[in-house]
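Project standup — Tuesday

K.O.: blocked on the structure for the chain from last sprint. Re-posting the sequence here as requested.
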Amino acid sequence: MVKTVDLSEPNATLAELVSLVSSGTQVVVTQDGNPVARLVPVDALIEARIPDLHPGAFEPSEDCDTPLPDEFWAGEA
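H.V.: unblocked you, prediction finished:
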């Protein structure tokens, strides 16, 4: 279910919107009829990491742990 709330309508409090999101309702915030934000549960933002999903996609160079020269830190490099 999706509920649309316009910023110009002071009919919904933040607590009410968070309660709706917690119960599974997607809340879309609009301004002048244009969507500007979507409220989603935090769990929807956290994706499980899958180890070795792309093996070999990244190969560090042999000198990846070599300290950077002083010129780099001085902004001269």
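K.O.: great, moving the ticket to review. The mean pLDDT is 85. The longest helix spans residues 14-22.
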